[in-house]
Design a protein that fits this description.
about 400 residues; alpha+beta; D-amino Acid Aminotransferase, Chain A, domain 1; Dna Ligase, domain 1; Rossmann fold; 6-stranded antiparallel β-sheet; 4-stranded antiparallel β-sheet; 18 strands; elongated
Length: about 400
């Protein structure tokens, strides 16, 4: 679950992590009132207006503006709110900006040092890692490609947690001033505690700032929480902003389907993430493109299969549907019943070709059920047969 920057700030503030003062607003008038408070509290000569959307690269898209007066706050917030912001991480249409964060300008009256720091799980080594660099800011991605020697990595042993010697090592590699190392120790330990406590998948600070008066400040925050842990994170579950998400993906989430919209022409319905990846590779190999990742899961029933059909059919670019099921926990006959129900219950009917591969528990019963239904379904026994069938369908269409 992606969080807005202001939500990430709220979490880090609760763990005593130093962040700039800021207020989130939805109108230019409220932006002016927030600016009055921040100007008075900080005595700064400027502040920052930051669009709140679930996408990076806001600065490159014009979603981060500096304002030096209340008049500028009003005009610039008005120009951002209600507009579609296009960044390197959005579609061509962009994302609608419904909120802006009016924030203290840490750069006002000084030029602080910028760093990059993120915490995430490396599943290959089954450890959390801290990735960091002396080169922070909006060009961090280019730096990681052109100068990988400037990127450092610290692995955290899950049995011992973040150790003080690791904190010191990170501070020295960042070449922090001696005066700031003590503050950095508190900052990093608190940051790591926040990451663990809210079941985050990613906590990224870019830039991390060392101010002229030797303070460490998390200026820009990106946080992603683990959806699977929200049952024990009731407080943060309410942070979900469904307006920022694909409505079809929300529908799939509520139906307990693992779904991700892609830009292809072949809809996929499978059980198991590994099988899903293999199925999508197969679709690519036969000249098609997967329109989605959709895993119905091991506990799927006929109703969930029907919901999966409905979700796939909402994509007008889908020219064929491939159902690839290995009956282990979920039985093939259950899936077959869901397929039959889908044909009978979906109002606008299923008018595109459906290719079905069922193997495993009760596959014979499932195939007889589908044959007796006399539905226009293509049966295949192997992925190769399915690929050949999709190739023929796409060539005809």
């Amino acid at each position: 679950m992606n969080l807005h920057e202001f939500q990430g700030r709220e979490i880090l503030r609760s763990f005593s992590v130093n962040i700039p003062d800021g207020v989130v607003v939805t109108t230019p008038e409220d932006a002016v009132e927030a600016a009055k408070m921040i100007f008075k509290k900080t005595n700064k000569t400027s502040l920052v207006i930051k669009a709140q959307i679930h996408a990076g690269g806001r600065g490159k898209g014009g979603g981060i503006q500096i304002a030096k007066s209340l008049e500028e706050v009003y005009e610039k917030s008005k120009n951002i709110l209600g507009k579609y912001l296009i960044t390197p991480q959005t579609s061509k249409k962009g994302k609608l900006v419904r909120k802006v964060l009016i924030s203290e300008d840490i750069y006002s009256n000084s030029t602080p040092k910028e760093y990059y720091l993120s915490i995430f799980m490396n599943r290959d080594i089954e450890k959390n890692v801290i990735l960091y660099s002396k080169e922070g800011g909006i060009e961090i991605e280019d730096i990681s490609k052109k100068h990988p020697d400037k990127i450092f990595l610290e692995e955290i042993d899950p049995f011992f947690g973040l150790q003080l010697f690791q904190v010191r090592k990170i501070g020295y590699n960042l070449e922090l001033d001696e005066k700031v190392l003590k503050d950095f120790k508190h900052f990093l330990i608190s940051l790591y505690k926040a990451y663990l406590s809210c079941d985050a998948l990613l906590l990224e600070i870019n830039p991390l700032i060392q101010t002229f008066d030797h303070q460490i400040v998390a200026v820009d925050i990106k946080m992603v929480l683990d959806d699977n842990a929200l049952f024990r994170q009731k407080k943060y579950a309410s942070f979900r902003d469904q307006k920022e998400e694909n409505p079809i993906e929300i529908e799939a989430f509520e139906a307990k389907l693992n779904f991700l919209k892609l830009e292809g022409n072949v809809g996929c319905m499978v059980n198991g993430a590994g099988l899903a990846m293999a199925t999508m590779d197969m679709i690519k190999s036969c000249g098609g493109n997967p329109a989605n990742f959709l895993d119905i899961g091991g506990s799927a029933d006929k109703d969930r299969v029907e919901k999966a059909f409905r979700i796939i059919l909402k994509d007008p670019s889908v020219q064929a549907i491939l159902i690839n099921i290995f009956g282990g926990i979920v039985r093939c006959d259950t899936v077959a019943e869901g397929i039959v129900n889908s044909y009978h219950n979906i109002d606008h009917k299923i008018k595109i070709p459906v290719i079905v591969r069922l193997q495993g528990t009760n596959e014979v019963i499932a195939k007889k059920r589908l044959e007796n239904s006399q539905l226009p379904i293509y049966f295949t026994s192997t992925l190769k047969e399915a690929a050949d069938r999709i190739k023929k369908i796409l060539m005809i269409r």
